[in-house]
Design brief:
The complex is a heterodimer of chains A (about 230) and B (about 300). Chain A has 8 helices and 5 strands, in the order αααβααβαβαβαβ. Chain A is an alpha/beta fold. In chain B, helix 6 links the parallel strand 5 and strand 6. The chains are: A alpha/beta (about 230), B alpha/beta (about 300). Chain A: It holds the Pfam family Transketolase_N.
């Protein structure tokens, strides 16, 4: 199947939501996902079992339409599969399932699981001498879950230099993070960048910066109220 | 004598020497039992991360061993066990110490009589409950060589002699009046409590999967389909599986184990707690008499 471009995402999105005009534009993860899959991750549909592929773990699994649309645009999914979204025998649910969808590395939905798993993945790849990087995407409100903070401290102390956490920050957490999300990582030894979550060039530069000896967090800010 | 934990540690370290897939995740507990090794990772007092990291190691292609005290391994991060291993469909070896009340002076926080029942809510887990340190080595080697999900429940409680490690139930004694199933460390107590009873005694160390065929075969060899299930954890944990095994046989089933109806706010010794739960020789013998009749009447 032909690969698609960023401009094709609204139509792919619309195959699930039936609304090309509004919902896709509100997807807070869309630009981050596109930049990662288009320009950053060393992955492809014919290498989903390659032990040296980069790993991308979508921890914030709620509202996965942007993720499915990107996977379809990049050839992991036939676009017609999007039409079956959430049907009984569809591989595509409201939360992604790695057992059902080719290329999905994490079954998510319950918050606070992806980051600890990503830390373990990064440790495991390092132990095996592999250079693959592990990316995990979380939401700012997801950071409410204490399990993340166990993992943030641990990753910093272990100096996991091939681990990247992307925090899509649309200020959706009820109690917020005074001083900013990045500080929670910096104090534990992470390198941190905070960028405009819609700016592809800024996202790319943030994802590809050097961070020797320590993990990297990229806080991708999305306008408040862009909730999805 | 060498403890179950020490046999576990020694066996894992031995396998690690030639199997680079094996990695251990700890949360402080037992950190000094393992020799320093790049594949022994102590995450600190972070049990959610401990299980998540174990799953991540599996995701990267390794065979994780995740180990700590039972309540902190199974109860505190239970959703991580359910999702990070089960829902991700990843394999791993979870190994607990402490049992139901190995160290009762520490109180309720260090007791996990519900651990096996919790695993019973999750598909795809093998649960093994050794009754002697010599049974632990073969169980650990088998677990490390496999790719699936295994829970090993180690304890300070143990029988005087080991039995060969098999998947199904082992007939230790054959009788005519019924069947008693003794799980793991309960065997010696059950043998003593049934000394004067004419019953078959089965020894179980693998409780998930449950040896339904073995139980049914034993029941078919006795005169009455009466089954007494004696488990060292929450009473009735395997009762539904015994019931299923005997679905086509009119039968009686009674389950002994750690009581569900009360929290014992008491310290003392593990033997004190056995007595409080009727899991000592007196308590089990009384249940045997009620179920299988007095030996004089049976003669």
């Amino acid at each position: 199947m032909d690969k698609s471009g960023y401009a094709d995402l609204p139509a792919l999105f619309g195959r699930m939501t039936g609304d090309e005009k509004h919902e896709w534009a509100a997807a807070s993860t869309l630009d981050v996902l596109w930049v990662l899959y288009d320009r950053v991750l060393d992955v492809s549909p014919d290498r989903v079992d390659d032990p040296d592929r980069d790993r991308f773990l979508l921890s914030k699994g709620h509202g996965p339409m942007a993720y499915y649309a990107v996977l379809a645009a990049k050839g992991y999914l036939d676009p017609s599969t999007l039409d079956t979204w959430t049907a009984w025998d569809s591989p595509l649910g409201q939360h992604p399932d790695r057992v059902l969808v080719k290329g999905v590395e994490l079954s998510s939905g319950s918050l606070g699981h992806g980051l600890p798993i990503a830390v373990g993945t990064a440790i495991g790849l390092r132990l095996q001498g592999r250079t693959a990087r592990t990316f995990v995407l979380v939401g700012d409100a997801e950071l409410d879950e204490g399990s993340n903070h166990e993992a943030i401290a641990l990753a910093g102390r272990l100096g996991l230099e091939r681990l990247v956490t992307v925090v899509v920050d649309n200020a959706s957490g009820t109690h917020g993070w005074p001083g900013g999300v990045a500080k929670r990582f910096e104090v534990e030894g992470w390198q941190a960048s905070t960028v405009d979550g819609r700016d592809h060039a800024a996202l790319y530069a943030a994802f590809t910066q050097d961070h020797p000896g320590r993990p990297l967090v990229v806080v991708a800010e999305i306008g408040k109220g862009e909730r999805r | 004598m060498t403890s179950m934990r020490q046999v576990f540690v020694d066996t894992v370290e031995d396998v690690m020497r030639h199997d680079p897939r094996v990695a251990v995740v700890l949360a402080e507990i037992s950190r000094d039992a393992f020799a320093p090794h790049e594949r022994v990772i102590n995450v600190g007092i972070r049990e959610q991360a401990m299980v998540g990291v174990g799953a991540g190691l599996a995701l990267s292609g390794l065979r994780p061993v995740v180990h700590t005290y039972a309540p902190f391994l199974v109860e505190r991060p239970f959703e991580q066990i359910k999702l990070d291993f089960g829902h991700q469909d990843l394999g791993g070896v979870l190994v607990s110490i402490g049992g139901s009340y190995d160290d009762p002076v520490w109180g309720r926080t260090h007791q996990a009589p519900g651990d096996v029942a919790l695993f019973g809510t999750l598909p795809g887990w093998t649960v093994r409950v050794p009754g002697h340190p010599a049974e632990v080595g073969p169980m650990v080697r088998d677990a490390l060589a496999r790719d699936d999900r295994i829970y090993l429940r180690l304890s300070l409680r143990e029988n005087s002699a080991p039995h060969p490690v098999v998947e199904g139930f082992t007939e230790v004694r054959r009788g005519r009046q019924g069947v008693v199933v003794a799980v793991g460390p309960m065997l010696d107590t059950v043998l003593e409590a049934t000394r004067d009873a004419d019953v078959t005694v089965l020894y179980a160390t693998t409780v998930r999967p449950f040896d339904a065929a073995g139980l049914l075969a034993a029941v078919r060899r006795v005169e009455r389909a009466d089954v007494l299930l004696v488990e060292p954890y929450l009473e009735g944990t395997s009762a539904h599986l015994a019931t299923e095994a005997l679905a086509d046989v009119p039968h009686r089933l009674r389950s002994l184990g750690v009581r569900r109806d009360t929290e014992l706010r008491a310290y003392g010794t593990a033997e004190d707690h056995d007595s409080a739960h009727d899991l000592d020789v007196l308590g089990i013998a009384a249940a045997v008499r009620r179920m299988f009749g007095h030996p004089a009447a049976a003669a």
